[in-house]
Every structure is written in C-alpha cells, then in structure tokens.
Design goal:
Largest sheet: 6 strands, parallel
Helix content: 40-55%
Structural class: alpha/beta
Number of strands: 8
Shape: globular
Order of helices and strands: EHEHEHEHEEEEHHHHHHHHHHH
Distance between the termini: 43 Å
Strand order of the largest sheet: 1-8-5-4-2-3
Number of helices: 15
Radius of gyration: 19 Å
CATH class of the largest domain: Mainly Alpha
CATH architecture of the largest domain: Up-down Bundle
CATH superfamily of the largest domain: Dehydroquinate synthase-like - alpha domain
Number of domains: 2
C-alpha cells in the first residue's frame, strides 16, 4: 500500500438502543436467507430464542450453534465444521468478546458475512474486524483479521445493563486507553489496522470517547448497578463499543494493548478481563510517557470510581515477583504495537515502568 494513503474503516451498520434485538430483522434480511448464531450456553439461553424468532419473522432461517466459551484454534475449527453444515449466508456472533470473536473467526473460515451482537459492553470487539485467539491456558497466541469489518453491529442496551457491572467496567477500561494509544500512533506515523495511516476522524473519535467516559462513566456505572438504561449508559456504551472500536482500528494501538501479550502469560493477570488488563497497562504507558503525578493522579481517581485496576494486585497478581514482571515485559515486546511509541523501547523499559507504579 502506498505510504501516503489514509484509510478509515468500520462496520456497515451500527444499531444501538433498548430493544435493538427486536428491531434488527430489517438490517439482517439483506444479508441472506440463512444464518447461524454462535454463542456459549448462557448467551444462547439469554437471547437465542429471541434471535431465532426475529430472523424467522423476516424469512431468515437461523440455527443456534453452541461454542465452549474458549476461543482456541481447535474450537474455532470444530464450530466452523458444525456451522458449515448449515451453509449460512451470515454468522451472528453473540456474547462477550470471546463469543463475538468466535463468530468472526468462523465467518472468516466460511467466507460468510458477519453480524455481532454483544450481550455485555465489555470491549469494542463488536465493531472490529480483528479477532483474538488463545491457547488452552488462555494465553494470547495470535490476532487475526477478517477481510472486512462486520456487516451489522446490534447493541441492545436493555440486555447490556443485565450483565455484571465488572464487565461494564472492563468496557470502560478497554476504551479509556484509546486516546493515548492513538495519540502515540499519530505521533510516530504508525500504520493502522487497515494498513494505512490514520485519518483525523480516528483521532477525533478517540478524543470523544475519552471525554464521554470521563464525563459520564461514573454515572453510567451507577445506572448499570441499578440495571437501568439511562442517557449516561447509552452515551458510554456508544463510546466503549463504537467510538473505541473505530478509533483504534483506524488510529492504531500502542503499549497498553501490546502488554496483553505479557499479561496473558502470567498467573492471575491472564484471568482478568481484557479491559482491565489494558487499563492497568495504560498506567505503565503513562509512566513511559513521563506524565506528571497530577495527571496520573487524576486518571487514578477516575479508575477508583469506575472499578478499574491500579496495580498488579488489583489485576489478580498479589505479591508479583520480579521474574513475573520480566516475563510480562518480554511478552509485551513481542506485540507489533510495542513499536508504536515516541521512542524505541526495550523489555527493560517496560519492566522499569511497571516497577515504578504500585504492585
């Protein structure tokens, strides 16, 4: 690709609001007459029958296909074999990040179109063409790309508020880092997820995302505790799913997301939600950026109010050892995003920044 091409991408349709599932038929019908719904058992119990009925009402045959809850290469292959038997025109991936990414992975292998249906606003996977693959110990092993972004994203906020609050918190964590990662990418002219340089729209979306989270995130968390859909919830969900997803794919990622390679390789942290991993990793990135204590303190205050981790202990790693910190740092440097920074970093730099903040 020519070095001077600016590229911006995103899903074909984004549909959000209370009752969005019941209204999604008109957006799905143009995709074809057959579909499979891929989700784990709890998600199938939650929305499976409803999705099948909505599809049937617009003449689409939809077959539920259960996946194990873990997204490994073996599980992707197994689910793809089952789904292939239904010859779907499109795949609906439903649930949290793993369910949605499994749906994308299966669609990628079948050459089918993609619909994402999050049941928790825990990350921005619904809008992205990327999907993460883990091993049996839940260590991140690779990130693959579909040929195109999802065709339709359906975000039913009445369902979102029934998910555990910690998942909503994780969505805020995944999104709050994007302003800082996109800024690093623009600063060094890094390539985005489409292989081009970023458009200013991506930078603006990352800023809007951050501003929305800072102004409405605490109130939204409180509303989710009450299981209420409020304007704060709607605005924050749009930020965590849409703004965050468009911002990072068209803007790029940096240290905060690179650190998931290392954090997923160690005890405790590997079991933390993705959004909580990268929220902690942002504190490391801010240390590497040399941010002053007042700025970091302001971010920490927001973290406390939105249940985000401030230390490895908060992330599930009490008494983290120096050896474990070195493992995390080494793993971080294997991620391509690690080079999207204002200066060239080493594993020792990552480890040093980690040791400079609370364990």
């Amino acid at each position: 690709m020519s070095d001077n091409l600016r590229v911006f991408g995103g899903p074909g349709r984004y549909v959000q609001g209370a009752g969005a599932i019941d209204a999604m038929g008109r957006f799905l019908q143009p995709l074809g007459a057959s579909a499979v719904l891929i989700a784990d058992r709890p998600v199938l119990d939650l929305v499976g029958a409803r999705v099948v009925k909505v599809c049937a009402d617009v003449g689409v045959r939809c077959e539920p296909v259960e996946f194990s809850g873990e997204i490994t290469l073996a599980e992707i292959a197994r689910v793809a074999d089952v789904a292939r038997g239904f010859a779907p025109a499109f795949v609906i991936g439903a649930g949290g990040g793993r369910g949605i990414d499994t749906g994308k992975a299966v669609a990628d292998r079948l050459g089918a179109r993609v619909v994402t249906l999050p049941t928790a606003a825990s990350n921005d996977a619904p809008t992205s063409k990327l999907y993460a693959v883990y091993d049996e110990r839940h260590r991140l092993v690779q990130v693959d790309h579909m040929a195109a972004s999802p065709d339709v994203v359906v975000v039913d906020t009445a369902v979102i508020v029934t998910a555990p609050v910690r998942m909503f918190s994780a969505g805020i964590g995944d999104a709050v880092v994007k302003r800082f990662e996109v800024a690093q990418c623009f600063g060094v002219g890094a390539r985005n997820m489409f292989g081009g340089t970023g458009c200013r729209a991506a930078e603006a979306l990352a800023e809007l995302c951050y501003d929305t989270l800072r102004s409405r995130g605490v109130a939204a968390i409180e509303a989710v505790r009450r299981r209420e859909v409020t304007e704060d919830v709607e605005r924050v969900v749009e930020a965590t799913v849409l703004h965050s997803g468009l911002g990072f794919e068209s803007g790029g990622l940096s240290i905060a997301h690179a650190m998931t390679r290392g954090l997923s390789a160690v005890r405790g942290a590997r079991d933390a939600l993705h959004g909580h991993q990268v929220a902690y990793a942002l504190l490391v990135q801010l240390a590497l950026e040399g941010r002053d204590q007042a700025f970091v303190g302001d971010v920490a205050t927001f973290y406390r109010a939105t249940d985000l981790p401030l230390s490895l202990t908060d992330l599930g790693m009490p008494d983290a050892t120096d050896d474990e910190i070195d493992v995390i740092a080494a793993g971080t440097m294997t991620a391509p995003h690690a080079r999207n920074f204002q200066r060239t970093l080493s594993a020792a730099d990552i480890a040093g920044a980690m040791r400079s903040i609370a364990r």
